[in-house]
Design brief:
The chain is α+β, with helices and mostly antiparallel strands and 332 residues long. The chain contains 6 helices and 14 strands. A 10-stranded antiparallel β-sheet has the order 3-4-7-9-8-13-14-12-11-10, sandwiched between helices. It has a 4-stranded antiparallel β-sheet with strand order 2-1-6-5, with no helix packed on it. Helix 1 crosses helix 4. The chain is globular, with a radius of gyration of 20 Å. It starts with a strand and ends with a helix.
């Protein structure tokens, strides 16, 4: 059974998941090979190689048929499992609970060799809409306090399969990183009676030096204090605390700007590995006034080394103003 264990000094929770050690390629260090689609568990025709689908988009046919355009399944090697009770308990001074949660794989398209940023906008929109559908479903389970969407693209970013996919993990706790954002946003709101990300959007639109792209609905910019070279955020201009609050028009607008941003980074950095994460308010946190959902995209251009691990500081050799200018001026 997977464990969730809490560090009593920092308050950080850690997932101890022995089952994930059984994953194929779990400790691979060679570049990811596209491999043979006949052996890929995420390709059409290989539905038997995955758990039954949770959600799928298809024009015709029944569940687990091979004529899908998008599929969501449980991870075969989940970090957390949906079955069981939390079983919160003490172990001396330590706190632990059973590894209860949900770990899902969003298979973004049926083509084995097409990346997310090369999908047509409508298919990209379907991916974003599937995230929303899964959030709405997962928040009905009152054991879950929060969920995150993330994508690992490339071996350096943690991808184990080349077929383009992203993942959703629902958790019985609010992760430390999200809690830090909540606390900072709440404090800013307490003193200024305004959302900090709404204020950041306004200032970035005035200064213009860190903007990569601006649309009617979204701002794409390099954050003022980025941890990594070419770290890029996408923030909705309208105040919304939770990702699942988006409507169809917003999803379409986000698909367009998100796709362009990933394509810019892919061209500028010559097909880098990258991670993206959608940060959304916890399910029952009462954060509607002060929290603001957003997307963080982090190309893997540098390694986190001893100083960063020991201090919590990041050393970034590229200023956000330089990276935003470079991305902004790329030809369409």
């Amino acid at each position: 059974m997977t464990d969730l264990r809490k560090d009593p000094i920092t308050g950080r929770w850690v997932i101890i998941s022995k089952e994930r050690a059984k994953r194929p390629h779990g400790f691979a260090r060679e570049p990811l090979d596209r491999g043979d689609s006949e052996l890929c568990p995420l390709c059409p025709g290989n539905e038997r190689m995955t758990p039954p689908e949770i959600l799928a988009y298809r024009d015709s046919g029944g569940p687990n048929d091979s004529n899908w355009t998008l599929r969501v399944v449980s991870n075969r090697f989940p970090a957390l499992r949906i079955e069981g009770e939390l079983g919160k308990t003490a172990d001396g001074i330590y706190d632990r609970m059973n590894g209860i949660g949900a770990h899902e794989v969003v298979i973004e398209n049926p083509s084995h060799d097409v990346d997310l940023f090369d999908l047509p906008e409508k298919q990209f929109q379907n991916v974003l809409w599937a995230y929303r559908e899964r959030f709405l479903d997962l928040k009905r389970d009152h054991r879950f306090k929060s969920a995150i969407v993330f994508k690992n693209h490339g071996l350096a970013a943690g991808a184990a399969l080349a077929h383009s996919h992203s993942q959703i993990i629902a958790l019985p706790i609010v992760p430390k990183r999200v809690m830090e954002e909540l606390l900072g946003a709440r404090e800013y709101y307490r003193f200024r009676d305004r959302c900090v990300l709404c204020d950041i959007v306004m200032q970035e639109m005035e200064q213009k030096i860190r903007i990569v792209e601006e649309t009617a609905e979204f701002l794409v910019y390099a954050p003022y204090a980025p941890r990594f070279p070419f770290e890029t955020w996408i923030v909705p201009k309208r105040h919304q605390c939770a990702y699942e609050m988006i409507n169809e028009n917003q999803a379409y607008a986000l698909a367009a700007v998100f796709r362009r941003t990933l394509r810019r980074l892919n061209i500028a950095l010559e097909n880098p590995s990258f991670n993206f994460i959608i940060h959304s308010a916890p399910f029952e946190e009462g954060a509607s006034d002060f929290y603001h959902w957003h997307v963080e995209i982090m190309p893997k251009m540098t390694n986190v080394a001893g100083f960063e691990w020991g201090s919590g500081f990041y050393i970034n050799p590229t200023s956000p103003e330089e990276s935003a200018k470079f991305l902004r001026e790329l030809p369409e």
